[in-house]
Write a structure and sequence with these properties.
single chain; mainly alpha; 6 helices; Hemerythrin-like; about 170 residues; Hemerythrin domain-containing protein
């Protein structure tokens, strides 16, 4: 298994895309299936954004000040996803807005992933190189087992609040 931070984040992105496709297939299916999939999406996103907010973004921000604007935009995109995740977690899956809100979440996250993978990650890889990215990845791996999986987890709330004031 790679410890490269970008490889790890791309693996998360791949899993999220899989969950998004599953949700899109399940839109007309049983409400319980939509609920289960949204819970999985929310858990994956909560953990992923936590790791980026706590490890990847602060480290890149410190090492590559020229990417400040990219990082601040990413924090704000995470904030939008955090709000939608919190709302979806509290929402009944039979609510008329449940599918629409999930679709907006998916569209926002797909946009964020595309920007990271096509624009931001190549800049970071070129500027930092292998060893720093492996060190960042090792810190993310160490933090993952205790990372929040629910937007109501105090660690997720604290991380989200800190990210919007960073």
């Amino acid at each position: 298994m790679s410890t490269d931070a970008i490889v790890l984040l791309k693996e998360d992105h791949k899993e999220m895309r899989r969950l998004f496709r599953e949700f899109e297939k399940a839109q007309e299916g049983p409400v319980s299936r939509r609920r289960t999939l949204v819970d999985e999406i929310v858990a994956a996103l909560t953990t992923h954004t936590y790791l980026e907010n706590e490890v990847m973004y602060p480290e890149v921000r410190k090492l590559l000040p020229d990417l400040e604007d990219d990082i601040l935009e990413s924090y704000e995109e995470h904030h939008v996803a955090d709000v939608l995740c919190a709302e979806l977690s509290a929402m009944d899956a039979s609510d008329d807005h449940f599918v629409a809100k999930t679709t907006v979440l998916i569209e926002n996250v797909e946009h964020h992933i595309e920007e990271e993978e096509q624009e931001w990650f190549p800049k970071v890889r070129e500027a930092l190189g292998r060893n720093p990215l492996q060190e960042i990845g090792e810190r993310m791996i160490a933090l993952r087992p205790d990372a929040p999986r629910s937007p109501s987890d105090p660690k997720a709330i604290k991380s989200a609040r800190h990210a919007t004031t960073a």
